Amino acid sequence: MEEEIYFFKFIKPKFQSKLIFYLKWNDIQIRKVAYENNKIVKYYQKECRKLKHFLKENINFQYKNNNDLTTINH
Fold first, then answer.
1. DSSP label at 9?
2. Is-contact 31 43, C-beta < 8 A?
3. Model confidence, pTM
4. CA separation for the pair 32, 46 (Å, rounded)
5. Which of 21, 43, 53, 64 to pair with 28, CA 20 to 30 A apart?
6. For residue 25, what are the CA distances in angstroms to 5, 18, 55, 57, 74?
7. Separation CA 47–CA 24 (nearest Å)
Protein backbone atom coordinates (compact mmCIF):
# COMPACT_ATOMS: atom_id res chain seq x y z
CA MET A 1 0.00 0.00 0.00
CA GLU A 2 2.81 2.45 0.83
CA GLU A 3 4.42 1.83 -2.56
CA GLU A 4 1.16 2.77 -4.26
CA ILE A 5 0.84 5.96 -2.22
CA TYR A 6 4.45 6.87 -2.99
CA PHE A 7 3.84 6.28 -6.70
CA PHE A 8 0.77 8.52 -6.88
CA LYS A 9 2.25 11.28 -4.72
CA PHE A 10 5.76 11.46 -6.18
CA ILE A 11 6.40 9.42 -9.32
CA LYS A 12 3.22 9.98 -11.32
CA PRO A 13 3.06 13.80 -10.93
CA LYS A 14 6.66 14.21 -12.09
CA PHE A 15 6.17 11.89 -15.02
CA GLN A 16 2.86 13.51 -15.91
CA SER A 17 4.31 17.03 -15.83
CA LYS A 18 7.16 16.00 -18.14
CA LEU A 19 4.71 14.28 -20.46
CA ILE A 20 2.55 17.41 -20.67
CA PHE A 21 5.62 19.56 -21.31
CA TYR A 22 7.01 17.40 -24.12
CA LEU A 23 3.62 16.91 -25.76
CA LYS A 24 3.11 20.68 -25.80
CA TRP A 25 6.66 21.27 -27.05
CA ASN A 26 6.11 18.78 -29.85
CA ASP A 27 2.81 20.45 -30.78
CA ILE A 28 4.50 23.87 -30.91
CA GLN A 29 7.29 22.56 -33.14
CA ILE A 30 4.89 20.83 -35.54
CA ARG A 31 2.65 23.89 -35.87
CA LYS A 32 5.64 26.23 -36.29
CA VAL A 33 6.26 24.79 -39.77
CA ALA A 34 3.01 26.36 -41.00
CA TYR A 35 4.24 29.90 -40.27
CA GLU A 36 6.48 32.16 -42.32
CA ASN A 37 9.73 33.34 -40.72
CA ASN A 38 8.38 36.80 -39.86
CA LYS A 39 5.34 35.32 -38.12
CA ILE A 40 7.20 32.76 -36.02
CA VAL A 41 7.99 35.33 -33.31
CA LYS A 42 4.31 36.23 -32.99
CA TYR A 43 3.47 32.54 -32.89
CA TYR A 44 5.94 31.94 -30.05
CA GLN A 45 4.58 34.94 -28.15
CA LYS A 46 1.04 33.59 -28.51
CA GLU A 47 2.12 30.15 -27.27
CA CYS A 48 3.98 31.71 -24.33
CA ARG A 49 0.80 33.55 -23.32
CA LYS A 50 -1.11 30.27 -23.44
CA LEU A 51 1.52 28.55 -21.31
CA LYS A 52 1.55 31.39 -18.78
CA HIS A 53 -2.23 31.12 -18.51
CA PHE A 54 -1.97 27.36 -18.01
CA LEU A 55 0.67 27.80 -15.31
CA LYS A 56 -1.40 30.46 -13.58
CA GLU A 57 -4.44 28.16 -13.57
CA ASN A 58 -2.36 25.32 -12.08
CA ILE A 59 -0.33 27.24 -9.52
CA ASN A 60 -1.29 24.92 -6.65
CA PHE A 61 -0.10 21.89 -8.58
CA GLN A 62 3.20 23.62 -9.36
CA TYR A 63 3.72 24.69 -5.76
CA LYS A 64 2.99 21.22 -4.45
CA ASN A 65 5.36 19.54 -6.89
CA ASN A 66 8.16 22.07 -6.60
CA ASN A 67 8.14 21.82 -2.81
CA ASP A 68 7.44 18.07 -2.59
CA LEU A 69 4.38 18.74 -0.47
CA THR A 70 1.96 15.92 0.13
CA THR A 71 -0.51 17.66 2.40
CA ILE A 72 -2.16 19.84 -0.29
CA ASN A 73 -4.39 17.41 -2.12
CA HIS A 74 -7.31 18.30 -4.36
1. I
2. yes
3. 0.55
4. 12
5. 64
6. 30, 10, 15, 19, 27
7. 10
